[in-house]
Amino acid sequence: MTTSAHDCIISLMESNLQEKYFKRNFSLGVINGVFFNLVLAFISGSTIIPLFVSQLTNSNILIGLSSTLETIGWLTPQLFVAGMTLYHKNQLPLYIKTAYVRIISFSFLVLSVFFLGEKNPQLLLIFFFLFFAVYSLSGGISGVAFMDIVGKTIPFNKRGSFFGMRMFFGGTLAALAGILVEKVLGNYQFPNNFGIIFSLALFFIFLGLISFSSVKEPPLAEVKPKKSLKENLHQGLIIFKQHREFRLLFFVQLIIGAYVLGLPFYVIYAKMFLHIPTQIVGIFLTSQMIGFVLSNLFWGYLSNRGKNKEVLIITAILSSFPPLILLAYHFFYLPIFLYSSIFFFLGAITSGLNIGYMNYLLEISPEAERPIYVGIMHTFTAPSVFLSAVGGIIIQLTSFSFLYVLTLLVSFGGIFISTKLRDK
């Protein structure tokens, strides 16, 4: 049998396996996304996490860092992981192993809140960063496996619906959970209020990991040879130089993603200058999830039609709205209830950037090299998530208004660069 005939047979077998388990994998993947998007209600980087850390420290730098700690952990290790897993036919075993680490580390975080919150808040702050970092890094390690499995099991024309349903149903539940968060924050004192909220997050993290661990993953037909980290970095630089769309997508993700400069400080600003009570954060969270859900319907519609470029352009435009609204409050007297619209747009931006960026990346990544493309992109963009900490430094040195003028100007750059992408 010739090599060509052998490859055709393998490809046909893979296609049949993908079709056989498509409904199962699609359903489990959506369930996984529903649970993890629901988790956002309990560990939101724009509301819950910065509010929790602000109970333990007055440092804007630490508050900013905490808000994107999960994203830092998700992005940072992916190139190294891609290099180690690229030569494996199956990625699911890695996902399952990291699931144990994520559950155990977050369990220790929950216990720390309950047992150290009143007795030793300084030690709790240290433990929070430690256990949340482990949870986040293990999530980043599993991220390459997750993206590769999705690429192998979900056809191109179904990915918009796949990610859309994950976000729509999960976001809807998260919006309802915002009401629960408001009740918990209002009826329980620190640290028990956050202990309860994080316990709920742990429960849904467990369900989400169990669901995706049950997918049926087809083996990869063409497996790349094992390479050293140096070789993978070299390959990454070659891809970056030679692949125009990959390079542009990097800058699009970097510049639109710079909205995180001010992400954790919208709620801190409301607390410090608008004097909102703590439980109002639940309303902000619900508003954010409504924006996440409603916009998601539109993003999924565009993405299914191969218009991920348009998704990114509109998301870039929306990224200018939150700093504009905050600046309006800084200079004019406006009703407090309008402030929640900031979080509505933050939800829409998060949803649009996730759908547009992930699907565009999957489209331009060759199947056999998908893990390395994903790993390179996520690792190269990882430093940008420290921008929230940079935002904290800017506030320490200047003011809230200076930070949000800067954030607004950067959003204009995101609009410009996203128009340079080619339609796929």
Produce the secondary structure layout.
Layout: H1 3-20, H2 22-39, H3 48-54, H4 60-67, H5 69-75, H6 78-85, H7 92-116, H8 121-153, H9 159-187, H10 192-212, H11 229-242, H12 244-256, H13 265-273, H14 281-304, H15 308-318, H16 321-331, H17 341-364, H18 370-381, H19 387-397, H20 400-418
Question: Mind explaining what this structure looks like?
Answer:
The chain is mostly helical and 424 residues long. The two termini are 36 Å apart. The protein has one domain (22-418): Growth Hormone, Chain: A, CATH 1.20.1250.20. The longest helix is centred in the N-terminal third of the chain and has 33 residues, at 121-153. It has helices spanning 3-20, 22-39, 48-54, 60-67, 69-75, 78-85, 92-116, 121-153, 159-187, 192-212, 229-242, 244-256, 265-273, 281-304, 308-318, 321-331, 341-364, 370-381, 387-397, 400-418.
